[in-house]
Amino acid sequence: KYSDAVNEIFTQLYNDGLIYRGTRMINWDPIGQTALSEEEVIHKEVNGQLWHFKYPIKDTEDFLVVATTRPETMLGDTGIAINPDDDRYTHLIGKSVVLPLVNREIPIFSDSYVDKEFGTGCVKVTPAHDQNDLEMGKRNNLDSINIMHPNGELNENVPPVFRAIDRLKARKLVVDAMDKLGLLEKIEDHIHKVGHSERTNAIVEPYLSKQWFVKMETLA
Which phi and psi (to 5°) does residue 212 adopt? Predict the structure, then answer.
């Protein structure tokens, strides 16, 4: 009877136009392999690191340096963003960098979301794995490349050497590979808040997934 009631209400909500299905950025628990509501994500302060990587600018000997707390996501980068008022980089708008390890050409573009004072002022953009990056990607027509299986292992969209490896183990491999190429500029200690699953204590991944949602404004 319980299941029948769930099905009946679900169908009623759908027929009333109060629920819809779509691919959106959600909180994903790779251990429980389930979507989490905001209430189920516990933000914990952790002693992390900030890795500074050099991205070669196409057809030059120069580099752009980006800082990231999640090195493994660079394999899914599709752009580099700078603030339109940042005089250090405005001459590079419209040019491209060659994404290390992947050898993919990605554009340098401007977006007012970028904080000139944080890190190097250059932001790597991975639309499939960060909500803010997704919004920048939409505004600037970037591709969204999912690099992760639901269980947290990297998928076929990364170079073979990183495939079927857990995201946190892949992080070390990416850093080591960048270091060997001479593209790791420095590593800084960095205290920041990281979302953890209330259910499994796994580190939560921002993840593009097809899910059901409730139209809260209409319902209210």
Answer: -95, 140
Helix or strand run (H / E) with residue 136: helix 131-139
pLDDT digits (tens, 9 = 90+) for 48-98: 999 999 999 999 999 999 999 999 999 999 999 999 999 999 999 999 999
Task: Specify the pTM.
Answer: 0.89
Q: Which residues contact 169 (CB under 8 A, 6 or more apart)?
A: none
* Residue 67: half-sphere exposure toward Cβ, Cα within 13 Å: 16
At position 176, the amino acid (one-letter code) is D
Cα angle: 78, vertex 134, 88; to 5 degrees: 60
DSSP 172-185: HHHHHHHHHTT-EE
Which of 28, 45, 152, 159 has the alpha carbon at shortest distance from 102?
159
Closest of 17, 25, 62 to residue 216, by C-alpha: 17
Specify which residues 197 forms β-bridges with. Answer: 41
In the numeric block, the tokens 């005089």 are attached to 87
